[in-house]
Amino acid sequence: MHLAGRARLLAGRRHPCDGRQPRLRPDLHGLARPARAVAAAGRQRDAESAGRRPRARDGHATPRFREEVTVYKRILVPVDGTERGAAALGSALGLAKLGGGTIVGVHVAGESPLLATGDIGGPFYDAWRAEADRQGRDALDYVVRRATEAGVPCETVLAPPGPPWEGIIATVRARGCDVIVMASHGRHGMAARLLGSETQRVLIHCDIPVLVVR
């Protein structure tokens, strides 16, 4: 049927609710629609273009769906002076700048190789501990420099020697961190089975999100 003929046919029908004959206007597809529907659609388009939330007939705003972005405020970054640790730090700084967060850098020296000999507190252990602390301070100084250049607030923690995953989780709890950004050192095969993965242990024992940078 021709569009003009269809519009005349629709115009001749009676409105089922009030018995009145509705005024019809052609829509974008050339079909006739009641004038009130056309006006309502126009008001909704105008509201959306002006950035306002359109309202339903009962006066309540219609829901608007938007993408939610998780913002982390205290971001823990374990560092060990390696290139992989530096890459994790770069990712953490970007995350902190996105949400106005603070970087918490932590260095855990690990367990002393002298534990097997029982030489704890002797001169060899003291020399190892002094060197481990020096390397840890150097790694944390690097965190401070990068954070200062990026304009991100920063805290540092030189954890006592021990299993790195234990020191990381202890620092998370002590400093109130809400996410960990750490590097995976990529052990494979027999080395991964025998030595285990500090990252894997953190993932198992930690109750906050962990972002692994490879």
TrEMBL record:
InterPro entries: Rossmann-like_a/b/a_fold, Universal_stress_UspA, UspA. CDD domains: USP-like. Residues 72-214 form the UspA domain. Residues 1-10, 32-42 have a biased composition (Low complexity). Coiled coil: none annotated. Residues 1-63 are annotated as: Disordered. Belongs to the universal stress protein A family. This is UspA domain-containing protein.
